[in-house]
Amino acid sequence: MKRKEFYIKKQKRRKKITLIVCAILVLGIGAFAISKAFSSSDDKIVANAKSDDTKKENNTEQKPKVIGPNDIIPGDNIIKSAESYAVPANIVYKMIFSKEVVKQPKSVFLTFDDGPSENTDELLNILKNEGVHATFFVLGSQLENSDKNRERLKREIDEGNAIANHSYSHNYKILYPGNSVNPSKFMEEFNKTNKLMQDVLGTDFDSKVVRMPGGYISRKYYKDPHLKELDKDFKENNIVSIDWDAETGDATGRNYTVQQMVNNVSAYAKSEKHMVLLMHDAAAKKQTVKALPAIIKYLKGQGYEFKVISNAKPEDKNTTASNNESNSNASNPEQKATTAE
Ligand SMILES: [Zn+2]
Q: Is residue 201 in some structural domain?
């Protein structure tokens, strides 16, 4: 009997211990769960507070900047009011050099290379009087150490013209040693020139339009082995190279009369619906200044709209279309750009 009692007591004690252990376990798990829940909600509060901070920061950054008609469009090479007659360089390239049909009116792009120079003021006066605009392919070397040329650059953009890059030195021996482009040197000059332009126009200005001295076409003509490398640099930086498909002849060194220059342009106008017209803004090109009013009047008479070349933009399907309409500009640029620029 005693033994039986002892056995029962032992069993009861075991049950008690089991119950206590279970209770401790349940309490322990409960406490852990509760603390976990609190700590994760703390994390959430911290995270929410952080995202509020980020929102606040973003809000101050995102204050819309009002761009007036005379302000440079941030990241572009024109002022706001020039947008209405500007065509992005990627579209200009198609208009002039590709077989693709581009929905654009009969257009001419007046382009002036090698400036600014002592002729710039007169060229700008003529453009203003005629109510048309041009694209200036500027040399960095012309801006350095010349306050007058820097003022001319400012006037060019302020009066609604586009500004593009034509290298710093224009020196073939530096840019094309052994008649082959040095891509890193070319990009170095491109960036140096852009920086010099930004020093005058502010950092909102950024030109991604380039014309290589002598033309991209001459690099192709010479089957330049480094051209692909330069193409890659251009593509990575959204830079578009624009040559020309018409010229006044002012690069030839022949002393054309005003009428001869107009005749040169009219020869292109007979076949070109879209023209990028090469001219020069260098001190020696006085005849270009003389001929410009007559050239503009002639082109107006032929129904051309005057446009400028802005930085490349993502393509709008409405501006390009592939159909069967023949494009008079669809021939190979190598057959056109023949003058050493
Ligand atoms: Zn040039």
A: yes
211 CA to centre of ligand 1 in angstroms = 8
**pLDDT, tens only, 121-180:** 999 999 999 999 999 999 999 999 999 999 999 999 999 999 999 999 999 999 999 999
Rounded to whole angstroms, how far apart are CA atoms 132 and 150?
A: 22
36 and 114: one domain?
no
Q: Where are the beta strands (DSSP E) in the chain?
A: 86-88, 107-115, 134-138, 162-165, 209-210, 240-241, 246-247, 274-280, 305-306, 308-310
Q: CA–CA separation, 108 vs 269, rounded Å?
A: 9
DSSP three-state, residue 1: coil
Number of domains in the chain: 2
Q: Determine contact, residues 281/117, Cβ cutoff 8 Å.
A: yes
Domain of 25, in residue numbers? 1-63
Distance between Cα 104 and ligand 1 center (Å): 27
